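Data availability (excerpt). The following record was deposited with the supplementary files.
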Amino acid sequence: MPKKKRIILKTPQTKVAKPQQKKKLTQRTPKDDVNRPPLPQCKGPKLNAFIDHEASIKFLRLLSAPHPDAQANVFEVLIGGKPYALKAFKYYDDEEDLFGLDDYELDKASRIHFDYYLDPFFNECRAYGKLIENNLNGEVAVHCHGYLMLTADYEDKLDDLFGELDWDRPDEEYEKPVSKRSPLRTIVKDLIVEDNIWKPYVVRKMLRDLKKIRELEIYVMDIKPENYKGSKLVDFSIAMTLPHFVFDIKPEFQLQQYMNEDLAAFDGMLRDQKVKTKQRAFPDLATIKKLRSYKDPF
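Predicted structure:
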C-alpha cells in the first residue's frame, strides 16, 4: 500500500481460513531468541512476543501487493499448523519522518528515541498493546497474537518464493554476514479471508469501533478501504498512540487536525464506496452550527 505522508446490529462473522495442505517454504523461528521483552522499550503501551515462537512456519501466499512505498509485506502462513496473517516489516529509516520537524521541535524532542514513535513496526506494537490492555483485542480491530522476530535470511528465501519484495535494508546491513544482520520483524494476526461488505449496518459497527479506538487515544491516520478486512481494521502502521512525543511539541491547532483526520477519512471512504447511509463520522458545518456550544470564530 502506498506510504502516507505524516504531517502526520449484526455484522458478518469473521471467517478464518482453514489450514491448507500446500508444500511451501517451511522454516523455524530463531531458537536462540530467549530474551523477548514487550516492545517497544519506551514509555507507553507495549506488545508481547508471540507465545509459540519456536513453532514451524509455512508460507502459503503473499497477501499484499508489492510496492516500493509499502511499510511491510503480508503473508498467509501456517504457524504450528494454524493459519495466520504474518506482517513482515521493512527496514525503517526515520530521516523522512523527521524532515517534517523544525529545529525547535527537534531540539525539544532531542531526548526521545524517535524510532519508537515513528517506526511502522513499533506503531503497530503500541496500538495493539493499548487495545490488549483495554480488553479490545479482536473486538474493534483484527486480533493480534504478538510480535515475532525471524532471522534475516528469511528475506532471501521469501524473495525466491514470491519474487523480489524489497526490504529497504541499507547497504551497511548487507555488508554484514547474514547471521549478524538485524532480524526480520513481524507481527502475527488472525487471517481474515472475507472482503468488506459495504452495507449500512456494517458501516455503523465500523464507525463504533473506530470511535472506541479513538477513545483510547489511538489515532489511525490511514483510514481507507484496503486497511479493512471483513469490517475489521487491520493496519496501524502509521498510527499515533498516546503518549506520543508529537503531542508534546506540536501546536494545538495541528494536533486537532491529526485527531480529526480519521473521522474525515472515514466519511470520504463511505463516499468513495457509494454507501447509501446517513451515518457520518464527522458532522458537517451546518450540523455543528446547530449545537448550543458552537461559537462562530469570526
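Summary of structural features: Residues 252-272 form the longest helix (21 residues).
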